[in-house]
UniProtKB/TrEMBL annotation, chains A, B:
Protein name: Helix-turn-helix domain-containing protein
One Pfam assignment: HTH_Crp_2
InterPro entries: cNMP-bd_dom (IPR000595), HTH_CRP (IPR012318)
Domain HTH crp-type, residue spans: 129-197
Protein source organism: Pacificimonas pallii
UniProt cross-references to SMART domains, sorted A to Z: cNMP (SM00100), HTH_CRP (SM00419)
Transmembrane segments: none
Every Cyclic nucleotide-binding domain range: 24-69
Amino acid sequence: MPAQTIIMSASPAPVTAAPHAATGETLFWEGDAAERLYRIESGIVRGVRYTEEGERNIVGFYFAGDMIGVPVAGAYRFTAEAVTDVTYTAVLLDRLADDVRSGGAARLFETVQTELGADELHSQLLCRHGALQRMCAFISGLYRRLGGATIEAIAQVDMADYLALTPETVCRSLKKMRDSGVIAMPRHNRIDVVDPGALAAMSFQ
Amino acid sequence: MPAQTIIMSASPAPVTAAPHAATGETLFWEGDAAERLYRIESGIVRGVRYTEEGERNIVGFYFAGDMIGVPVAGAYRFTAEAVTDVTYTAVLLDRLADDVRSGGAARLFETVQTELGADELHSQLLCRHGALQRMCAFISGLYRRLGGATIEAIAQVDMADYLALTPETVCRSLKKMRDSGVIAMPRHNRIDVVDPGALAAMSFQ
DNA sequence: CGTTACGTTGACTACGATCAAGCCGTGTGG
DNA sequence: CCACACGGCTTGATCGTAGTCAACGTAACG
């Protein structure tokens, strides 16, 4: 069950602690009626969808500053699960409409940038032929997005489900990247980007 | 150069002929400042993007009723090219903001449904392993979207660039589908869906 | 009528999925 | 505290499939 905490209507003075979701918890479920958007304040969230055949797909990873939960036909497009401990702010849809009213055309699309951008990125990654290039492009993208050399907490299984690869292939690709010296892995779930330039170069075959 | 015709501000009485783009013409360019959205009235449009390495990617096909041209950071996300002759309506962004003002939360996301849905579909297709399944899912999706048994005018090269396959593989997959009797191809650029059920079934391996 | 782009077919190859086995780290119960 | 089990990671061997290269056929257009 997702955490149901939301920012209540009118209590501006003392900002209570931001709502929180522990590792593995679900923020919202695919298909549920969307009442609010979630703005991630800290931590990592993964967007999950299950195919008719029962395969798990990851549609995106989301980070601090991202706004997720945009509905299609009133329902959430994917299930949002906390990869790490996550703090977030919930924004009621009605409240959002007010914002747009005052913000005008420019603000109109701000709220959907995250999901539009995430989907776009996902397609671009999947278009790359070659497991190694896909992995390099993925890690390179994370490196830029997170603005730092260290990527932590994302399981290889999740990368596999995101990039439409098998866990074995992900593992082998990471090994190649280690052997090439573009990354280091002090622990299994931690990737240090050593040579960002070479990493980016390897994204384009 | 794209057709620059737009619906002018206040002339409600006699509806002039809808703006028109001939086969191959460009409606808008990736990266251009987005001033208006395009609502397709008839025909087929493809969304195109070129990678840094010069490869052509097709990000989506759009049909009558679809609204395209949603900007990210003020710029169009892809180039829109007319696959067939196309008629469309241009909606100024300012006008759109007015609409949202009067329409409230529900209308807020209506304008982005097309692109959000298209990106989602694209990811789902690309996630399928197996060229035949990908092709079947693609054709099956077109069949449902177009609400008819006939799919015309989409080149195999375009399908290849959309599904991240080679033209050769697309051709061979279509041949298999012909041999299985799920589709017929009276001409090279026309596909008749003969057995929609079997087609859908083949989408899931 | 020639040119060009697209489609078709075949032979070969490379890459990633699959199957199988073992390893490691974490968490739980005796 | 250790034993054990579980999930995730790692490595190897094999196989199938889609990419590649090459050649030819066919439709569309000026």
